[in-house]
Structures are given as structure tokens and as C-alpha cells.
Design a protein that fits this description.
The complex is a heterotetramer, with two copies of chain A and two copies of chain C.
Chain A lengths: L1 E4 H15 L3 E5 L14 H5 L4 E3 L4 H13 L3 E8 L7 H8 L2 H4 L9 E6 L15 H5 L5 E3 L4 H13 L4 E6 L6 E4 L15 E4 L4 E5 L2 H14 L5 E5 L2 E3 L3 H11 L2 E8 L4 H12 L9 E5 L8 H7 L3 H12 L18
Parallel strand pairs in A: 2-3, 2-4, 4-5, 5-7, 6-7, 10-11, 10-13, 13-14
Antiparallel strand pairs in A: 1-8, 6-12, 9-11
Helix pairs in contact in A: 1-7, 3-4, 8-12, 9-10
Chain C lengths: L11 H28 L14 H9 L6 E5 L3 H7 L3 H9 L22 E5 L5 H15 L5 E6 L6 H13 L3 E7 L19 H4 L6 E5 L3 H16 L5 E6 L17 H9 L2 H11 L4 H24 L23
Parallel strand pairs in C: 1-2, 1-3, 3-4, 4-6, 5-6
Helix pairs in contact in C: 1-2, 1-3, 1-10, 1-11, 2-3, 2-8, 4-11, 5-6
Classes of the chains: A alpha/beta, C alpha/beta.
The structure holds thiamine diphosphate (2 copies) and magnesium ion (MG) (2 copies).
Amino acid sequence: MAELTYRQAVAVALAQEMARDERVVLLGEDIGSGGVFKTLTGLTERFGATRVRDTPISEQAIAGAAMGAAMAGLRPVAEIMFSDFYATCWDQVANEIAKTRYMTGGQVSLPVVIRGASGSGGLGFGSQHSQAVENWAMCVPGLKIVSPATPSDMVGLLAAAVRDDDPVLVFEHKALYSMKEEFPVEDGTDHVVPLGHARVVRPGQDVTLVGLGFSVGLCQRAAERIDQEGVHAEVLDLRCLVPLDAQRVLDSVRRTGRAVIVEENPGQLGWAAAIGSIVAEEAFDALTAPPVRVSGANVPLPVATALEAAVNPSVDDIVTAVRRVLDPAPRTLCRPGVLNPSIP
Amino acid sequence: MAELTYRQAVAVALAQEMARDERVVLLGEDIGSGGVFKTLTGLTERFGATRVRDTPISEQAIAGAAMGAAMAGLRPVAEIMFSDFYATCWDQVANEIAKTRYMTGGQVSLPVVIRGASGSGGLGFGSQHSQAVENWAMCVPGLKIVSPATPSDMVGLLAAAVRDDDPVLVFEHKALYSMKEEFPVEDGTDHVVPLGHARVVRPGQDVTLVGLGFSVGLCQRAAERIDQEGVHAEVLDLRCLVPLDAQRVLDSVRRTGRAVIVEENPGQLGWAAAIGSIVAEEAFDALTAPPVRVSGANVPLPVATALEAAVNPSVDDIVTAVRRVLDPAPRTLCRPGVLNPSIP
Amino acid sequence: MTVGSAVPAAGPARDAAVDVYGELVFVRRFLEKVHALYRQGHVHGPAHVGIGQEAIAVGVARALRPEDRSIGTYRGHAHALARGAPPDAVLRELLGREGGICAGKGGSMHITSVEYGYFGSYAIVGAHLPIACGLALADQLRSAGRVTVCFFGDGTTNIGAFHEAVNLAAVWGLPVVFVCENNGYMEYTPIGDMTPVPRPAADRAGAYGLRPITVDGNDVRAVRDVTGEAVEAARAGQGPAMIEARTYRMTGHSCADPGKYQPPDEVERWAERDPLLVHRAVLVDAGVPAELVDEIDSDTRTEVDELAADILAAAPITGDNALTDMWSDGGARWRN
Amino acid sequence: MTVGSAVPAAGPARDAAVDVYGELVFVRRFLEKVHALYRQGHVHGPAHVGIGQEAIAVGVARALRPEDRSIGTYRGHAHALARGAPPDAVLRELLGREGGICAGKGGSMHITSVEYGYFGSYAIVGAHLPIACGLALADQLRSAGRVTVCFFGDGTTNIGAFHEAVNLAAVWGLPVVFVCENNGYMEYTPIGDMTPVPRPAADRAGAYGLRPITVDGNDVRAVRDVTGEAVEAARAGQGPAMIEARTYRMTGHSCADPGKYQPPDEVERWAERDPLLVHRAVLVDAGVPAELVDEIDSDTRTEVDELAADILAAAPITGDNALTDMWSDGGARWRN
Ligand SMILES: Cc1ncc(C[n+]2csc(CCOP(=O)(O)OP(=O)(O)O)c2C)c(N)n1
Ligand SMILES: Cc1ncc(C[n+]2csc(CCOP(=O)(O)OP(=O)(O)O)c2C)c(N)n1
Ligand SMILES: [Mg+2]
Ligand SMILES: [Mg+2]
């Protein structure tokens, strides 16, 4: 078993799929030389510049060309270098790619993958290069949304995305690129993780911690910390927002009675609110404490180290949240400015 | 007292502000002749083409020019004709306008208003002309979000938006344009409704119905229906998502113990989830039933009359939701496909 | 190929010219019918017709092979019909009846007929130009010899997606022909007021290393011939082309718009250059009997009237399929 | 105005030329220092310097009045400094120390100095071109006589925002001068591979009814003179201009990028045309003593070294102000 980084996993997944299916082509800016995050190293050498296509700086053209190519029988994988840049092609993604199958009465199929780096993770990329815009996407029916938290999941989920006949947005967390995992990489590997199945990172019975992408690791570390206090948290990695494995979350919360949902993004509106609402609506009777969200502050991401840390959710924040939902009284816990840094 | 339509109210508000402040200029496509929804009738005649500026079909240029002009001392009001078109200038709105004050350490002020038609309301505008994209905006800290539900609020909230020193997005619901209200329109009217204060549309003690824009009317009609059954619903019009009058919602729910939140958009992720989560987190002990969301189905908006009706939330849906939250058992009410058409 | 060469008095070329006239007339009557039905309240949602612009859709379609692709805008009824999309299914879509070409989900602005190579009507200005590049890319890689034609309006030349798409097509040498239908107006604003160059598309071609090509958009044969050259060049691997076809929108922007801003004398001048009149004159010059032409006119009117009457007689569709065809599994479930 | 006319051996013109050299050297040393500090791990987040491109920022600034505005990109340190932004506050921002020009919130990619007319650095390619139009619009309406200069890269000419902005500027006749710094590369890709015209900006000017203007971007006097003409025309109400300044990025795209894709002989060729060498030669031709020039070089190096050392000695900022300056009320509350 060799070690695989999350960064390498991107190329492993794509190589696996490109070898399997000639219709898979990549397009994006500066990808021919391996991409600015070096996630595509070796693919041009192996598959040629016709299938690993450099583009001009034209996100609308990239996303739109991916869509058109999918309608005409290719299975394109487009790169949006930083997920913040989805804003420059949001019309293609939200208004065209997401809607065209439905609005044509099912005349077309749109096997498009769009992938790229996203999130903060404390790297100092600032307000225009650190958002994880999966929340924008979740507001728009018609887009599958994937955010792998480990190298092996990156291989398996990205492979599944490429095989999916619907549009899938894959958010790679840039602070995870250097994460390593034992993984059997050899030619012919055929690792696929079906979309829509949450992962139980660790089982537990006292509280359910729900994470996605980078926040899974935060949850895990928080769980380890409170474990020493005798509190056993179940940690779930959602893996996908759409399709959403709501059942797995609800099952867990029905057992633990408590949910802490951890999102790196600003909490003003984000997927944690969707999960929080689903939990409140559908596991109400089982709740022994309010579902609580821990999320980023409602400001653009600042750059200086201490500022970025102040704004991002931390392991400490999660531990505090867990202690509070375990505290029997008072039950109305999350007052502005107390638990949730997103409420200044 | 004359009658004022919601449509006319737009021009009334803007005329009031343009007369008051020379720095207010309008820009947008085909606005010189009054705009495609005739919301700006008479403004060119009164203020001239220099202040009511026709633009090319260039939403990025419109939003960006509004931003730059605001930084240099104007108070621009830009029109994005249909709110779906925000997608074509989302970068300007979400990455530049929302972030620049903060990311420059407060060096600039951005008194920009962006306004335009949004929402479905059963008019058949289809999947690319019917979204109310306030949810995209709420995912992005830095944007104030306003959605008036009545003609007088249109005057007062739009005027407040123009006077605000922060970026404000005003979503006009196109199905409300013909709504009428008695309103004293005369020269010199100075009606301003401060942002961030929800409106109690009707008081009640049994359940809290929360609406915004078009869904306020749905809530009102549902409340009238159930009133006949002896159930007294309090109807709240949020008016703004940012700044959010969470306190008013929480106060109401703490009294009624029940919340039904009604959103026209798909429910997969939307402001109703934010409100639902806040209610669950902060009024947990007061809840006698789970907070329930009623929202649009998670599909692009179809056009045919019956299809559009099937997908949009209705008064019936709200009444059903209210009956359910009033039913003492079972308390876990909102199962997929039952209450909430957004969960197919 | 000579543009607008005379039609011979007999033979297949003459028959083809008569056919073309039949198509022009059919599209015109269809659009007029849509306009009337809209005015009578039978169309839910907005509708945009291209009365006066039919020669472009018909002329371009004549330059294409069945396997070629085309793509257009909300003003796309003519473009779908010209490729062969069944008028019945198109009108059912517009009227919200069973059998609509998009199952009632698309409506007037999104008419699509993949079966006949028309990859859809898009209602956000400029959005479909990048998509056209994608169609062409797929063919360049896997089905060399297929060409994509992308229709768009003069006002569309000012939006970013136009720039990105034409540039990408040029950089990649894609087999795509961009056809600008310059009808003189955005919605209400004359295009000349909002462009710094006189020819909104042709005068921008050079920015992408392309040759400016212009054509009289009201002359169906000229459109066919000019497009044919560009399409065959693209088919041969010579890359994209930019054609600007000058025409005029004889009605308002949408069926709800009376078009009062269109000066009467301007409308009159263009009425004299109506594409049906232009082509009728060609036929008459070629010795086609006026009665034959009149017969086409009246037969077509009857055909379209009957089509509409039949469809109107059917009940509007129910909301049963609201949650189908969202995902590739046929349903709309997004969670468990 | 003659481009690159000889500098006289004495007098104010000569002094000004020496000043300009001092500025070029200062900016160069500053950027080199940033590069070094980045490599040593002192900069949190990415940083982009424009070593080799300094003559454009400095030359343009010399063509502007204090009340004029400029706006640029993530590669904007030179542009801020050239307008007069305090180097101390800029470097504090880069190093996350108290007194940073954006209070630590912007970082390297968003250096802004409104006080000195530099309206910010934007990190999404193309986004600031429409914003520049807005700055110019405000001036056109209320402060006639002010001009805005907008800097951007060659790769930026392919994005939609570029097209929309330049078009709007032309349609409205805005007092804005667009300055393309053509350094030959996007991030890693040579611009020639991704544009269908040889001069990415100049060859597109015509699409907006503008004249193509090109200039040697490594000749600070040529930049100043050519920009000066365009700026004065804009000031006089003659509308926008498009200038393409050819230059070269002597290092990688960002400080993290070793730039291995830049062919060594290409780098060497451009090193010979280094803007500092070019201007030094002008001074020497004018009889400025070499010792004076050398003194400027070494004094500047010391100055920048000391500046950096001082700032590094201070403690990094705390997170105290994370929730300030979000809204106009100074705070970050979005709800009650
Ligand atoms: C991005 C965007 N902005 C604005 C609109 C509203 N709109 C619809 S059609 C139209 C005019 C388009 O003009 P043109 O491209 O000339 O096409 P035509 O309608 O004349 O066929 C406008 C502004 C839109 N649909 N999309
Ligand atoms: C919309 C967008 N796409 C991609 C990027 C990533 N990116 C940053 S700089 C750059 C290259 C820009 O090239 P150019 O305009 O020539 O400017 P230069 O860096 O050479 O100064 C790219 C692709 C971005 N910041 N924004
Ligand atoms: Mg037009
Ligand atoms: Mg460059």
C-alpha cells in the first residue's frame, strides 16, 4: 500500500476514468502543465493535449463548452481553478447546466463535472480565493454537490461524479491537498464511491457531529478531545449535499438526541441551515437539545493569520458547542455571539 | 388618498430620492423608456437621460459600473431586469460589491442599490425568468437584502435602500406589480421604512407564519382561512433578510410555540432554512411542534399553468402545514413528500 | 457559389425554391398564429416571435445537413421549425397541451428539438454561445464533419459570454458558425445607441481573427448561400465564422409589446423588404405561376388555423409530470 | 509629444528623469523584498510581484494628476506605490502587522490606497474593468477633468468582463484609459497560445471603435508619454483609450511559482531590456554621473531593507478587528 495525497487522488481518479472512457475530456486554465495546484500532474503526458485542454481565461466559455460537449456526447470535466470563480460563470452553472434537462422535458443528458479548489483552511488566500461556494449551488436544484474529505474519497467520489449522467460539482478543499492516506494505487484501480452516502467517520452515542470536506477533520479532532471527557461523539462526513443522505443524519440524531453541524463558510445562510432545519423538522421528538450550527463569521475572509483564524470555525468552537448541547439547562443555547462566530 | 400600485411605487420611491439627492443615478437596460415592467415611467422625462441611463446588455458592466460609481461618490441604482440575470454578474455582486469595504479595511463606501423583477407567482416566465435569487445573496455576507410585499413598503424600503451606505439588493416580485394600496402620493412625500424591521401583518397566538415578498400574501390568505376554524395565526412579513429581524420572529414563536415558514423558492436551501434553524436553535424550549418550511419544489420552474402551480407553494400547502403543527401527535411532522413539496 | 443567382424556370432548383417559399410562409403563418393566440390569452408566460426575420432561420437550415446542430434563443420557434421540429409539438408546448415538445416545462422561450438537431432555445442573452462551442468541440473530437450554427441577436454582441465564446471558438478552430440576426433592436433600444461600431457582429469579428461576413437577412437565398460557404469551410476543418444578417423585427420585442418605439416609416421601409415578398419576386421572375404561390399562401393559412384549432380543443395538461425528468433517473429526488 | 526624446544634461527635466529612476529602483527593490520575504515564509497567503514590469506603473503614474484615479490587479504593489501609497503601510499589510493599509483584511492581492487615488487591487481576472467604468462615470457626471486608469493583464482580454467594460466605456465616452500590461503569460500559458490575434488588447480596440495604441512597456518615458496623450484626451472629454504595453514578467506568476516554463533565452533577452537598464542608459546619455545612479541604487536597497527589518520586528496583528468595517456602521451585525 502506497501513500496517496488528496492532491494526487484527483489525477488518480481522472486517469482511471479517462482510461476507461474515451469521452472523458478535461478543460480549464493552465491545466495542461498539471494545473496550478498540481492536481493533474501527468495527465497531458498520458492522454495528450486533445483531451487535457488548456483554455483562455474565460470561465463562461469553459462551463458553457462543457455543457454543450456533454449534450453532444462527451463527458467533460471542467476545472474552475478557485471555486470563488464560479461567480464569473454562475449563469452557465445555475441557469443552464442545472436546468436544461428538466426544461427540455428530458431531451438532453448533462454528464458534466466541474471541479476545483475551494475553501479557506487558514491558508491566507483571502476573500476572493477562499469561499466554498457549495451553498450557492445548493440553492439551485439540478446540481449534484460533492466535497471529499479524504484522498480515497477523492478518488472514489470523483470517479463516481465522472460516471454520473447528471451535472456534478466537486469541491476540492485546498487545505486538504497535502493530506495523505494509505491507498492501493496501481493501474486498473477501480475505486468508486457512490454519491449520496454519508460516511460514519467514528461512531458514538452522545452527540452527532456533522461535517463536510475540511470541517470533517475539525469534527474528528473535537470528538477526540471530548472523548477524553467521556463524551462519545458520532462524526458524520456528509460527502455530498446533493444527493443528501439525510437518513443517515436523522438516524444518528435520533440515537444521540443532539446535533452539532459544522460548516467552514459563513453561517448567515449555508448547508448547515438545511441540515439544521431537516433535523428540527424530522427528528424533533428525539432532540434533547437544539440542533446547533458552528460556522464561519459573516464577513469576507480576511488574510492576516490571526484574523483568518478568528473568523473560521475551530476545534475549540466545536468543543464549546458540544459542551453546551450536553448541558441540560438552559436548552436554548445558541445566543448570538456565544456559540456561533457567524453571529457577530 | 390615491391608489398606488406596487409597480408605480418603484418610480415614486426613486423620484423621491432623485429629487432629494443629485447623486442618485439609475442605470440599466431599456430603462430610459420606463423599463420593461414600466416601473420607471416618467423618470427620464423628469430627471433626464444623464441620470436615467440606458446601458448595453452587459450585466457585469452594469453592476461593476454601479460599484465604481458608488466608490467615487454617486449613489447608483442599477436595474437587473430579472433577478435570474444576477447569475451573469454574480462575480461583481458577490465577490466585489459585497466584499470591498471589508477587504480594504473600510477605505470605501458602497452605497449601491440593485433592483429588479423576481419570483414566479404563477406568471409562466419559466425556469430562467422566475427565480428569486435572494438566497444566493444571503449566502454572501456584505449584501443587504430587501423584498417588499406591498406598494407602501416598496416606496419606504426602496427609499431606505437608496439612503443606505451599504449595498442593498431589492427584489421586486413581478406578480405583485399590479397590487394596489391606498397611499398618499404627492410631491414631497418622504416615506422611508428603515431596513431590518419585520412587519406584523396580523397578530395571532396559535402559530407564527413567516413570509417574504409574494409569500406574505399566501400566508395572509392561509391565516384568513384557518381563522374560520378558530386558529389564530400571526403573520410576519420579514421585509429584509439582511439585516434580519430575528428577534421579532423569535418573540412571536416564543408566544405561539409554532412556526411555519413560507418561501416561494425551492426549499433545498433557502432563507426558510436559515429562519428554521434560528428558531430551532434559539426558541427550542418554547416550541410545541417542529418548525416547518413550506417551499417550492426542487426543480427549475416549469411553464405550463398546472405544472407551475404544482411546483409553487400554495395557500393549501400552508393550511395543511398549520393543521399539522397544531396536531399534538405525532410531533415529527414534516416527512419527505408530505408537507413540503420541495421534498419530492 | 453565387449569391442570389436567378432561379431556373423549371427543374429541381426551381422546385427547391418553391419549397423554400412554402417554408417561409409556413413559419410566418405559425408565428402570426402564436402572436394572435398570445393576444387572446392562450399562451401562459411570455412569447417572442420573429416576424420579418424568417429568411434567416429558413436560409440557414437549408445550408445544413440533418446531422448538423443548431442552437438559438427565446425567439426560436422559426429556428426549430426550420430544422424540421414538428409544428404540432411546438404549438402544444406553447399552449400547454399534452404532447408539448418540452413536456410543458420549457414553454415558448425554451423550444428544443434534439431529434431534429435543434439543441435548444436559451433565454439568458448570450448564454448559448459558449454552449454552441461545446457542441462543436464534441464534434471536432469525435464526429468530424458535423457543424453547429449558433443564432443570436445584435444586442447579444455586448455581453461577456459572446466575447468568451467567439474567442474560444477561434482559439480552438471549432466547427461553429455564429449567425447574428441584426434586427436593429435590443428590447426597445435601437442597437445603434448601444454599440460603438456600426455593425455589432461583423465589426467585432476581427477581434477574434475572423473575417467580417454580412448578408441581407431578408433574402433567403443569400442567407443560404453565405451560410453554406461558412458551414462547408467549418466542415472542412477551417474553423469558425461570424455572419451578420441584417433584418428587421416587424412586431414588438415580445407578443406583449406593441413596439410603439419603432418609427412607422422605418417599419414601412422594411415591410417593402419583407422576406416573403423578396422570395416571391424571385419565383415570379423565374416564371412560377402566381396562382401556385397564392395557393401555397392560402393552403398554409388553413393548415396552421386547423392545427391551432385542434390543439386548442384539447384540455390543458395537468401537473402530473412536475417531478419527472429532473435527474437522469427520471425523477426529482435529491435526498433520502 | 515626442516619445522618448533625449533628456537634457541639466535642469528640471533631467531632475525629473532622475526622480523617475529613483521610483523605478524603489519599486524594484520593494518587489524583490516581497519575493524574498515570501520565500522565507513571512507572507501569509499568495503574493504576486511584477518584477520587470515596473516601468508601466511608474510611467503611468507620472502621467496622472493626484486627483486622478487608478485601479489594478492582485499584481498591484507597484501600482499602489507609484501613486504614492506609503510603502510602510503596504508592507505591513503584506506581513500582517499593525498599520497594514487594509488592516490585514486585504493582504497582498487587495492592496488599496484610496487616499492616493489607487482604488484597489482585485483578484478575480477582469472584474475591475467594469468598476473602472463606474469610477469614470462618477467623474464624467460630477467631476469633469478627472481620469481613471485601469491596469490589467494580457490574459484578461479573454474574459467577458473585459468586453463589457471596454464596450460600455466606448458607448458612454467615459474618461477611462485601459492599460494592458502584456507580459506574455497568463499563469503558465503563453498568451499567444490562447488568443487568436497577435496583440491581445490592441487588436481588440477596433471592436469598440477605439484606436489600437501600443507602447514599449519597459521604457518608462515612452509609457508616460503615450499614456499622457490618452489621459489628456480623456480629460478633454474625448473618451476612452486602449493602450497595450509590451513587457515581461521576470519571475513566476506568483512568488510560489519558480516559472520553469519560461524559456531561459526568453528571460535573458528580456533581462537585457530591463526597464531599469533602459532608463539608466537614458540618464547616462544625458550625462548623469554613474555614481549618482549607483548611489540611488544602494541607498534604496538600504532603505527597503531597513523598512522590512523594522516591520518584521513588530508582532503580528491579533484578530481583534475581525468583525469591524463590514458595514457602514463599522460593525458586522447582520441580525438582531
Ligand atoms: C443576460 C440578459 N439580460 C437581459 C435580458 C432581457 N432581454 C431579453 S431579450 C433582450 C434583447 C436582446 O436583443 P437581441 O440580442 O438583439 O435579440 P432580439 O431580441 O432582438 O432577437 C433583453 C435585453 C436577458 N434575457 N438576459
Ligand atoms: C476569473 C478568474 N479566473 C482565473 C483566475 C486565476 N488567475 C489569476 S491570475 C491569472 C492569469 C492572469 O493573466 P494576465 O491577465 O495576463 O495577468 P498577469 O498575471 O500576467 O499580470 C489567472 C488565470 C482568476 N484570478 N480569476
Ligand atoms: Mg435585436
Ligand atoms: Mg499576463
